[in-house]
Amino acid sequence: MSTALDATLKILSDADQEIPVDRLADLSDLDTEQIGQFSPIWEGLPLERRRTLIRLLGEEAYAHVELDFERVYRLSLDDQDPDVRQLAIDNLWECEDPSLIAPFVRALASDVASNVRRSAAAALGRYVFLGAVEQIRPELLRDMEEALLAVDSSDETLEVRRAALESMGYSSRPEIPDLITQAYQSGSEPFVVSALVAIARSANDEWGPQVQAQLNSPSPAIRLAAVRAAGELELIETVPDLVELLEDASEDVRRAAIWSLGQLGGDVAKQVLGDLLDSTEDSEEFQLAQDAIDNLAFVDGSRDLFMFNLDTPDAD
User: Fold this and answer.
1) Mean pLDDT for each consecutive 10-residue tract of the chain (316 residues)?
2) What is the C-alpha separation between 170 and 194, in angstroms, rounded?
């Protein structure tokens, strides 16, 4: 009996027909037998059709969280085309399966295409984070850290080196602070941005002065990265700067400042975000301000809880 998957595969294999976006859900949650059906179809598709399909699958999965095309992405990791390999890595952004570490490390070390190596370096960041919180084995974390550190001493492209530095921000390796400092002091805007991304991921508020110094950078990209870092590191002292940046010329900076104020909390942030909620006529900005206020309530409530001494006789 013909199934929905059979019908969809038949359409996909016909290069004269448009890829049926409304039927791509049939490729979600494929089991071993079904991926066996799909594999020869995939391998027989023309290059542009494979590129289009893997891109559309990523877009559908982002728009519909219930869809899971992981097995298709994994199959695509070994595609002959570097753009398909890159999209496959990028589309796996939600996956935390440690079995992907080895192919990502291998791609970073030896893929011939720099865009694939960059995506692999970026993808390893979430696994470094998992290692930092002891959710994966120490030897896997060590392998990743060594692969990422090797990038710094190589002749890699700027984008691959930046992605590796940003991913290393989660690591507690003693080499990392010096690498961040070198990038921060390089005078290169892209590397300063990546240094700030790594700082934001470090969970180390000792970087506060460096972050605050860049909130007034003439570069919108650097200001944006600094604003995000201020929120992630919970740098309360940056609240006045963030309030000023609500009037920034860059829309991205303004919106990042809204969210960072929601991360920091406090009376000033609460008042400013409330005023913004009352005054804005931008629907997206309104929703962001509302989400920031909701987060602020959680942040302030959590701080109150930690300040409450549960060991006192009055705790009951």
Assistant:
1) 83 95 96 96 96 98 96 97 98 96 97 98 98 96 97 93 98 96 97 98 97 98 98 97 97 96 93 91 91 85 49 45
2) 13
- pTM exceeds 0.85 for this model: yes
Helix, strand, coil distribution of the chain in percent, nearest 5:
75, 0, 25
Q: How many CA atoms lie less than 13 Å away from 234 in the CB half-sphere?
A: 9
- Token pair listed for 296: 């602020």
Question: How much is the pLDDT for 67?
Answer: 97
Name the amino acid, one letter, at 295: N
Q: CA–CA distance from 62 to each of 65, 69, 73, 91 (Å)?
A: 6, 11, 14, 9
What residues contact residue 116 under an 8 Å CB cut-off, 6+ apart? 82, 85, 86, 89, 107
Quick one: tokens of 58? 């990523």
Whole-angstrom distance, CA of residue 232 vs CA of residue 197: 10
Please tell me the predicted confidence (pLDDT) of residue 298.
81
Domain boundaries, the chain: 1-93, 96-188, 204-308
Domain 204-308 has CATH 1.25.10.10: yes
- Which residue, 65, 58, 11, is CA-closest to 38? 11
Q: Tokens 């975000």 — which residue? A: 273
